[in-house]
Structures are given as structure tokens and as C-alpha cells.
Design goal:
Number of strands: 0
InterPro entries: DUF5601, VPS9, Vps9-like, VPS9_dom_sf, Znf_A20
Largest sheet: none
Distance between the termini: 40 Å
Order of helices and strands: HHHHHHHHHHHHHHHHHHHHH
Pfam family, one: VPS9
Structural class: mainly alpha
Radius of gyration: 40 Å
Main location: cytoplasm
Keywords: Acetylation, Cytoplasm, Endocytosis, Endosome, Metal-binding, Phosphoprotein, Protein transport, Transport, Ubl conjugation, Ubl conjugation pathway, Zinc, Zinc-finger
GO biological process, one term: protein transport
């Protein structure tokens, strides 16, 4: 190949690299071609080198950080509030609207099905009754004829053997004994029926309760009183003191809260989703009444709703957190097992811009892990949210110290994933479900609490679906790490460096 042609190929390679912002491969190709006089061997070496370099840079470009567009965190209906995977991407408000639509449709379909089945049953019953009626009439005539014939024969026989009054008196005595025996048997039968009724009939159907009995039933038993925790008593006192500042609205709020708790105590047989609906409806009704009827300012309404949630959920916690009727516990175990299996994941695989070798950063990471674990010890949804918020702020501080610049949203999510993997919080799914079901919806739809909670839901979803491509690994390496056959080798390059930003950015 002529030297000019060889040099031209080198220039094309160089130009291609310059377009990509990478001049190294082109420059080396030029030098190789010139040093060897532009021979075919030099050309092949240059092309091979350029191809290898291009492949390397392509791998670098594919090594991108975990990125979630901020629009993906918002409600998919486009209302502007934060969505939630538990609500199928809707915010609390839109999810309830969709849920009610689906529920009304299901109720209508069930009603139509019930009417159709009832009509079919009535038609089948009418048909069977007409057939049985004809058979019963024939059988009744036969029985009547047989009884009359038997009676006539008995009367005829008695006439032959009735001889004296003594015999008649004896007959009367015998009949009296027979009647007494029949009466005794009837009484025994009544007693048996009464006993069976007492066994199989609910107590409230046997007799109408008196007013005193009603009051006694409403009053909590001593055993329940003994089970009231110190925290519950403290929350009650704080709630009453808080409501005093609201004067007349405070009295109304307290009455509504007590009525709601009494209502929920009688709705234990409802599904957890239906109980959640009751709580969400209650929050909404109280908030609207405070704003429209009592003309309370938005700031005071928010404070009141926080206290109402605390008062109610402190009492409802043991009934509605991870109930046996759900698969929350099963999901908790699955996530916990999954996180244990991913113990080998390094910050570099997730492109986490945090350098734990810096003491201050290491402290922030420990505090973040502590906060996310502490979430499980809280009983009120808002308190659990506060733990998530504190954890997130420690993460942002750790990133800021490491990079010496404010952290971005793209830096936050992978670091949150790393914190969850490292901390393996207990009952993670149960806590997320509990917050979703019973937290004041306005806190999840807007504000920093809603933003951080939505990111936590995304982090858990990512962990559940994490694969080799997510970590920039080959499938072979990923499988070996998951099986425990080997673990990633720690090298000096494993520590964080500013190059991670270049390797993991878009």
C-alpha cells in the first residue's frame, strides 16, 4: 500500500478519535505508520490498535451510573405530585381516584352477577317445586287413605273386646299415663332445642342487652388497660395539650378521633387495604373540615394533621403493621435474603461518589445506615419518614464532602442503594407498606419527605431487579459472585477518585 494511502488511513483514524474527544489512538496510529514507512503490517497494527481502543472506550461509555429521570418520580397521571410504586406510579390522590373507579366497576359487576345467579336459582327452585308438588299431592292422598283404613280396623277390633266399665276405667288410666309420657317427652325435646339454641346462636341474638350491659361492653377490660403502653399515654397527654390551643375546633377534632378509633375497633375483619381507605378518608375529611368549617390556616392544619396521625397510629400500630392477612412478612424475608446475597457489591460497581477513607464521610455513612435501621423502631408513619429524611441528608453531606461540591440527584440514588445494601434494614417492605397505607397523604405527595421516600421505593425496586448489566459486569462474573464462588478483588483503584465521575456519567 502506498505511503500516502497509509498516512490517509491514519489521519481518518485520528480524525474519528478527535470527533469523540479521544486523540490518543489516532496519534499512536500516525506514529506507527510513519515509523514503519507506511507498510501493510504497520497499517494492520494501527487499525487493530484503534479498534481495541474504540472497544475500550465503548465499555467506558457503557459504564454509566444509576440514573433516574426526575420526571419518573412524579405521578404518571401528570398531576405534579410524587408517585409511588406501591400505587402503580400514581400519587396518593390519583391512586385513590383510580382505586375508587376500579372498585365501583367491580361492585357493579358483582351486583349484576349476583342478580343473574339469583334469577337462575329462583327459576330452578320454581321448577323443582312444581314437580315435587305433584308428587307430594299423590303421596298425601295415599297416606290419608291408608290412615283412615287403619283407624277403621282398630275401631272395629276394639268393639269386639270392650266388655265392662272396669275395662273403660283402665283404658282412661292408660291414656292418662300415655299423655303424661308424651308431655314429658315434649318437655325434654324443648330443653334439648333450647340447649342447642344457646350453643349455636350468638349471644347478642338470645336477648336484648340492657343499657348497663352496653356500657359495660364499651368499657375496656382491666387486662387491656394494663397493656396500654407508656408511649401511648404520653402521646395522649401531648395530643390533648396540643388541642387546647385550637379551642373549639380542638374539641371537635378529639371527638372525631375517638369516634374513628371506636369505628376501627369494630372493623378488624376488613382487609388492610380497606382499613387504609378508612384512614385516608378520615384524614381528608378532618383536613377539609378544619379548612372550610373552622377556617384554620394551612400551617396549623398541617401541624394538626401530624398530631392526629400520631395519636391514631400509636394505637392502631399493633393491628395494622405487617398484619398476618398480608404477604408483607414474606416480602420482608425475600428482600433481606436478596440483600444478603448482594453483600459483595462495591461502591465502584454502583458508581457511588463517596470516599469512606475520609473520616467525616465515613461518619456520615454510619449515621445514614443507623437512621435507615432505626426506622423500624418507630410506630408513627411520620416518624418513620423522618428517619428516611435524616438518612438522605447524611448521604447528601457525604457526597458533598467527597466531591467538594453540592450533590446532584444522580449521585443520591446510587448512594442510597449502597446504604440500603450495607445496612439491610429490618422489615423494609413492611415499613414501606405501612407508610404508604397510613401516612398523611399530603406528606408523600410533596416536600422533601415525599421526595426521599419515593427514592427509597426506587432503590428497593432496583435491588430486587439488580443484574449483571446494572453493575457493569459480565454475566459470568455476576453469577460467580452471587453463588459465593469468588468475590471482587479489592485493589487500590477501588477507593473513590474523581475519575468515577467520568466513568459513571452520561
Amino acid at each position: 500500500m502506498p505511503l500516502g494511502a497509509s498516512w490517509h488511513v491514519g489521519q481518518l483514524l485520528s480524525r474519528e478519535k478527535r470527533k469523540e474527544g479521544e486523540t490518543t489512538a489516532g496519534s499512536l496510529a500516525d506514529e506507527t505508520l510513519r515509523s514503519d514507512g507506511g507498510g501493510v503490517k504497520s497499517l494492520l497494527v494501527a487499525v487493530a490498535f484503534a479498534a481495541a481502543y474504540r472497544k475500550k472506550m465503548n465499555l467506558k461509555s457503557e459504564r454509566r451510573g444509576i440514573h433516574v429521570d426526575q420526571s419518573e418520580l412524579l405521578c404518571k397521571k401528570g398531576c405534579g405530585y410524587y408517585g409511588n410504586p406501591a400505587w402503580q406510579g400514581f400519587c396518593s390522590k390519583c391512586w385513590r381516584e383510580e382505586y375508587h373507579k376500579a372498585r365501583q366497576k367491580q361492585i357493579q359487576e358483582d351486583w349484576e352477577l349476583a342478580e343473574r345467579l339469583q334469577r337462575e336459582e329462583e327459576e330452578a327452585y320454581a321448577s323443582s317445586q312444581s314437580t315435587q308438588g305433584a308428587q307430594s299431592l299423590t303421596f298425601s292422598k295415599f297416606e290419608e287413605k291408608k290412615t283412615n283404613e287403619k283407624t277403621r280396623k282398630v275401631t272395629t277390633v276394639k268393639k269386639f273386646f270392650t266388655a265392662s266399665s272396669r275395662t273403660g276405667a283402665k283404658k282412661v288410666a292408660q291414656e292418662k299415663i300415655i299423655k303424661q309420657g308424651q308431655l314429658g317427652r315434649e318437655r325434654n325435646a324443648d330443653n334439648i332445642l333450647r340447649d342447642l339454641k344457646e350453643i349455636f346462636t350468638p349471644s347478642w341474638e338470645l336477648a336484648s342487652p340492657t343499657e348497663a350491659e352496653i356500657q359495660e361492653a364499651k368499657a375496656p377490660s382491666p387486662s387491656i388497660n394494663r397493656q396500654v403502653s407508656i408511649e401511648t399515654d404520653r402521646v395522649s397527654k401531648e395530643f390533648i395539650e396540643f388541642l387546647k390551643t385550637y379551642h373549639k375546633p380542638g374539641q371537635d377534632i378529639y371527638k372525631q378521633c375517638k369516634l374513628f378509633l371506636d369505628t376501627m375497633n369494630h372493623k378488624r375483619d376488613l382487609s388492610i387495604e380497606e382499613q387504609s381507605e378508612c384512614a385516608q378518608d378520615f384524614y381528608q375529611n378532618v383536613a377539609e373540615k378544619l379548612q372550610t368549617r373552622w377556617k384554620v390556616s394551612p400551617e396549623k392544619v398541617e401541624k394538626a394533621m401530624d398530631q392526629i396521625e400520631k395519636f391514631i397510629m400509636t394505637r392502631q400500630y399493633k393491628y395494622v403493621f405487617c398484619p398476618e392477612t398480608t404477604d408483607d412478612e414474606k416480602k420482608d424475608l425475600a428482600v433481606q435474603k436478596r440483600i444478603r446475597a448482594l453483600h459483595w457489591v462495591t461502591p465502584q460497581m454502583l458508581c457511588v461518589p463517596v470516599n469512606e477513607e475520609i473520616p467525616e464521610v465515613s461518619d456520615m455513612v454510619v449515621k445514614a445506615i443507623t437512621d435507615i435501621i432505626e426506622m423500624d423502631s418507630k410506630r408513627v408513619p411520620r416518624d418513620k419518614l423522618a428517619c428516611i429524611t435524616k438518612c438522605s441528608k447524611h448521604i447528601f453531606n457525604a457526597i458533598k464532602i467527597t466531591k467538594n461540591e453540592p450533590a446532584s440527584a444522580d449521585d443520591f440514588l446510587p448512594t442510597l442503594i449502597y446504604i440500603v445494601l450495607k445496612g439491610n434494614p429490618p422489615r423494609l417492605q413492611s415499613n414501606i407498606q405501612y407508610i404508604t397505607r397510613f401516612c398523611n397523604p399530603s406528606r408523600l405527595m410533596t416536600g422533601e419527605d415525599g421526595y426521599y421516600f419515593t427514592n427509597l421505593c426506587c432503590a428497593v425496586a432496583f435491588i430486587e431487579k439488580l443484574d449483571a448489566q446494572s453493575l457493569n459486569l459480565s454475566q459470568e462474573d455476576f453469577d460467580r459472585y452471587m453463588s459465593g464462588q469468588t468475590s471482587p478483588k479489592k485493589q487500590e483503584s477501588d477507593s473513590w477518585s474523581p475519575d468515577i465521575k467520568d466513568h459513571c456519567s452520561e
